[in-house]
Amino acid sequence: MIRVLIADDEPMMRAGVRAILQSEPEIEVVFEAASGREAIEGAQRHRPDVAVLDIRMPGLDGLHAAAEIAATVPGTRVAMLTTFGEEDYIERALGGGALGFLLKAADPRELIAGVRAVSEGGAYLSPEIARRVIAPYRDGHRARSVEARESITALTEREREVLALLSVGASNAEIGERLHLVEGTVKGHVSAILVKLGVRNRVEAAVLAFRAGMVAGP
């Protein structure tokens, strides 16, 4: 069971998110908050697997709440759910410890997929957000492309297969199913990939894979 906390200052939005998530038998909403401060207190009290936070809330906003939850409740992984996709918000959210960034206007299935991926310790970006993250590394960045391709050579063939699937948003379970590996083995490969590539998380690994030409551009 994936235990989820929802934080949004709009009751209708909280109700909608709760309905979407609880349509899945393995997801349970254990706490709802109307502010960043309530979200922090709820996370500390209920220790959910995932906290889904809006960015703009009264008082303490979702970005500050995300950083506080990541620092004080390490077992709770954070995903931002917002109408705002500006690069500054994306950078601050991911830099503050969030593993997911989802848009409210996206397909409800993205919310479910994002919560599942983040609960497993993976990263998940809505496709529109992924395009914005990757865009700076598109045409004209040859030096970075060469450097990325050189970094990839440090990986084993199996690690490259894992990276390719990781880069398109596959969870550890999905990677294991595709490559016929147990989930623990996938986690080991992902950890080795992050170390060998010198990156902090799956999002940075995905960007590097794109630079190296392993993933088709948006």
By DSSP, the count of extended strands is 6
Strand content: 5-15%
Overall average residue pLDDT: 84
Based on the coordinates given, report the CATH architecture of the largest domain: 3-Layer(aba) Sandwich
CATH topology of the largest domain: Rossmann fold
Number of helices: 11
Order of helices and strands: EHEHEHEHEHEHHHHHH
CATH homologous superfamily annotation of the largest domain:
Response regulator
Distance between the termini: 34 Å
CATH class of the largest domain: Alpha Beta
Measured as a percent range, the helix fraction is 40-55%
Instruction: Return the domain count.
Output: 2
Described by strand count, sense and barrel closure, the largest sheet is: 6 strands, parallel
Class derived from helix and strand content: alpha/beta
Strands side by side in the biggest sheet: 2-1-3-4-5-6
Poorly predicted tracts of residues? none
